[in-house]
Amino acid sequence: xxxxQSKLVLLKYVGDDYTNYMEERTxxxxxxxxxxxxxxxxxDEQLYEYIVSKGPEETVWKIQLDVxxxxxxxxxxxxxxxxxxGSCTVTLNCTAERGDNIxxxxxxxxxxxxxxxxxxxxxLHLSYPxxxxxIACACTASNPVSSRVxxxxxxxxxxxxxxxxxxxxxxxxxxxxxLLS
Length: 181
Description:
Distance between the termini: 60 Å
Number of domains: 2
CATH class of the largest domain: Mainly Beta
Shape: rod-shaped
Structural class: mainly beta
Number of helices: 2
Largest sheet: 4 strands, antiparallel
CATH topology of the largest domain: Immunoglobulin-like
Number of strands: 13
Strand content: 35-45%
């Protein structure tokens, strides 16, 4: 004996007419045959079936819906820095407090400094000669539904004038919460 299977039908389209069984949760767009889930939540994350019946023939598509929380504004923390042999070396960590499946990347809008800033991952080891007065890098935190950018200006080494972040606890971690649109 087989176990009977039941399915929740969201919408039925027959001929040129349709019935939406969950009008408070879904909206059907007849012009492109799309079904919009309103106020998507984690409970909507599941496998859906899209079935088209034409006479005795039936075609079934399986669609996995993944629901992501958007990325929050990231912040940059200075993990360490050092000045030696005319160079500044800074280790930065970019993190976003909220969001699913977040990926991090570093870059620069300035093509002359792009080589210093290019990196995939949340941690950037930035090393540059002190004669470069300022290197502007930016961290991008993104996932499939959102993206947020936060800048970092490397003039930090010159401004600190040789003070160690350990000797000055107020400088040991400087979050940057600016958002570029």
